[in-house]
Amino acid sequence: MKKWTILTLVMMAIFMAATIVVAQDEAAPAAPAVSAPADGALVGPVAAPPSGNSGGFWAVVTNSVLGMMLWFALFATGGIGVYLAVDCGIMIKPKRIMPQMLINNVTDAMAEGDVLKALECCENEPGPLSNILTAGFSHVEEGFDVIQESITTSADLEAERIMQRITWLSVVGNLAPMMGLLGTVQGMIGAFSLLGEGAPDVGILAVQISQALYTTAGGLTIAVPCVAGFYFFRNTANTIVLKMEAMTMELIKDLRNVEVVDE
Description:
Blueprint: H1 2-27, E1 33-35, E2 43-46, H2 57-61, H3 65-91, H4 94-97, H5 100-111, H6 115-124, H7 128-137, H8 144-196, H9 202-251
Antiparallel strand pairs: 1-2
Helix pairs in contact: 1-3, 3-8, 3-9, 5-6, 6-7, 7-8, 8-9
């Protein structure tokens, strides 16, 4: 939760700083226009036709309060998408989920027939694989059937935890185009409202139409890599989980010969 709060505050600061800079630039006085008739004589300054907001991306962003809120939501969603992609790229790796050091230590301990040593190795290397092995080694006195059932339950739990981490990328990928569509609807409503008033200001009308197009492009720009990343990390996680389950069964195969002694 702390990471999400910091990321949101950073995105808010960037957005507000950019808005202030744009507002200052738009407040600068423009040079008066000078017209030249056909005979070459200069006549004084001629006022430029009103154009409302100037064109460009930042004019679209600062067009209205609702538009600014929508763009802030898009920027924040993009930042969250980048954070999730980096987080999944770091965490969804075989060496993070199945540390080779843990596998070697547990293999050596099981070769010696020392279950307590194997359990200690798991406690020293916390992670999905160690959690699964710990669940099995903790029931070693109850027979192999109970061990196998405990490992299966723990493996399903760890796989679900991994998939929940990846699923947030899909959430971002679904929300971004919806917010882009909301901006499209807002821009088109503004454009048709101006047309309904009669002869519209071309500059303001262009900004409203740009709002519709820019937000759609922004939402798709965020959604496409997030959806692609979701499927990539999901397939990678499924492969790692299958290997982890096979590795777990290989590590506990020696426990088949354990006899349950009734006290």
